[in-house]
Specification:
Low-confidence stretches: 1-39, 282-303, 370-429
Radius of gyration: 24 Å
Helix content: 25-40%
Number of strands: 18
Structural class: alpha+beta
Mean pLDDT: 74
Bound molecules: zinc ion
Distance between the termini: 66 Å
């Protein structure tokens, strides 16, 4: 049987299809073998190398991120590796190797992530040693490192200052996003990066300036002080709530050319496939706040409709200095939930996922629910979500299916859809 090091060399030659097929088949074979064995795939613990529970917790969350797991299992990352120099791809290689081991191991014995740790330390020296670290910071460094090694952009274009301020917000957001992709474009970006819109409105002249920024995760403040239950939706609402900037915080209005009292507001312009939410406790570590995590659906009625399903949680208990991290993850193959506590993996019921220790939450955009960006008023009935003019007919049908419209409404719906498609054309005539 061919071994991995041999195939690895094969794969280094770009476009070596036979190598890639071989590796996929090889991995496929092992997966099937593991399937037949008693241990379910992916249910492998990670050895604690000394205060590395923060790393293990995040690695388990990422291991249960289906698209990322498949990217590693199918060796798709090898196509994207920037193989300008060997040392520039070691983090992605080690990460993929670890995921492959976790998903193909036929024994249920915990795996040691020490080789991986060596590489993350090389990339981010702050992780050298065995101090307790912040799981979310670790996630940021890791995703950034992986992204850099599989960035499809090898030569970044020279930065040019383009002004999109004259464009409508929707257009401006799109332009800013494509400018971002000109520099940062990878599988990691495909999955984890969204776009945040912040608008600043002057209370004096009403001028509104908008800024679009990519985000890799969102930090949500706890919507409640003291003890008690708080829903994630409340935290989301607090995050997107209009905020007044006054006093020392007064920004300079572009039109007034003076410092004015302004209102600031965040909205999500582009929803990422994987939404990572970090729960901010504002240094209230001694106060236990129960974050009620609706694990089935989160309806984000912000700018558009999006449905996210929770699939992984990194939990933190104790204080920042001396705490412990664990993970709750839904196995993408079986759909069952498990607790990952370093080397231990135990089944859990989905109702236990509601946790007071939830620190980093991983949500996956529901595949049947693509974000919709236009609303259409139907003659009979309330407002219904309506696909944008760039949506396919398939999207439209998905959107229509649950509505059970009468024939008359259906006609209105389609004419509305068609007119949106042709409005651009009309304006040319
Ligand atoms: Zn103003």
């Amino acid at each position: 049987m061919p071994t991995f090091p041999f195939l690895k060399q094969e794969m280094r030659r770009k476009g070596s299809m036979s190598g890639s097929v071989l590796v996929s088949t090889f991995v496929g074979l092992i997966i099937n073998q593991a399937k037949n064995s008693k241990s379910a795939q992916g249910l492998v613990g990670l050895k604690n190398l000394g205060n590395t529970c923060f790393m293990n917790s995040i690695l388990q969350c990422l291991s249960n991120t289906q698209s990322l797991r498949d990217y590693c299992l199918h060796n798709s990352h090898r196509r994207d590796l920037n193989n300008n120099s060997r040392t520039n791809t070691a983090l992605m290689e080690e990460f993929a190797k670890l995921i492959q081991t976790m998903w193909t191991s036929s024994s249920s014995e915990a795996v040691s992530p020490s080789e991986f740790k060596t590489q993350i330390q090389r990339y981010a020296p702050r992780f050298v040693g065995y101090n307790q670290q912040d799981a979310q910071e670790f996630l940021r460094f890791l995703l950034d490192g992986l992204h850099n090694e599989v960035n499809r952009v090898t030569v970044r274009p020279r930065g040019t200052v383009e002004d999109f301020d004259h464009l409508p917000d929707e257009e401006k957001g799109k332009k800013m996003w494509s400018k971002y992709l000109e520099r940062e474009d990878s599988k990691i970006v495909d999955l984890f990066v969204g776009q945040l819109k912040s608008s600043l409105t002057c209370s004096h002249c009403g001028f509104c300036s908008t800024v679009f920024d990519p985000f890799w995760d969102l930090s949500l403040p706890i919507a409640k002080k003291g003890y008690g239950e708080v829903s994630l939706m409340d935290c989301m609402r607090l995050f997107t709530k209009e905020d007044v900037l006054d006093g020392d915080e007064k920004p300079t209005c572009y039109r007034c050319k003076a410092r004015r009292r302004c209102t600031k507001k965040f909205t999500i312009q582009k929803f990422p496939k994987i939404l990572v939410l970090r729960i901010l406790c504002f240094g209230q570590q001694n106060v236990t706040l129960l974050v009620n995590c609706p694990f089935k659906h989160v309806f984000c009625r912000l700018a558009v409709n999006a449905v996210y399903n929770l699939y992984a949680v990194s939990n933190h208990s104790g204080t920042t200095m001396g705490g412990h991290y664990t993970a709750y993850c839904r196995n993408p193959s079986s759909g069952e939930w498990y607790t990952f506590n370093d080397s231990r993996v135990t089944p859990m019921s989905s109702s236990q996922v509601r946790s007071s220790d939830a620190y980093v939450l991983f949500y996956e955009l529901s595949p049947s629910q693509k974000p919709l960006s236009m609303h259409c008023k139907l003659n009979s009935g309330p407002d219904h979500a309506f696909p944008s003019s760039s949506s396919s007919l398939c999207d439209l049908l998905v959107c229509l299916k649950p509505l059970k419209l009468r024939r008359r409404s259906l006609f209105n719906f389609f004419s509305c859809f068609l007119s949106s498609r042709f409005s651009a054309l009309n304006s040319c005539w």
